[in-house]
Design goal:
With 70 residues, the protein is mainly α. It has 5 helices and 2 strands; from the N terminus they run E-H-H-H-H-H-E.
Length: 70
């Protein structure tokens, strides 16, 4: 998939655990795990906004586009 989720990288930079982040953005740890592993098919803008607010980052710090190599 050409969209890469770098949420775990941002979490490590900000030294925040999955449980703490899930609590602060009001989602379940299981749903946060789905986001972190890149298995999510979609992400709500409201969730992305909360992630950026708590992690003090931009959406591009969390999501990256890499075209498929042919």
């Amino acid at each position: 998939m050409p969209i890469i989720v770098n949420l775990d990288v941002m979490m490590a930079k900000r030294k925040i655990s999955s449980n703490d982040l899930a609590e602060k953005i009001d989602i379940t740890p299981a749903n946060l795990s789905v986001l972190k592993t890149g298995k999510a098919k979609a992400v709500r803008f409201s969730t992305l906004e909360k992630l950026c607010e708590v992690l003090n980052c931009q959406p591009g710090d969390i999501l990256e586009y890499r075209p498929d190599e042919e």
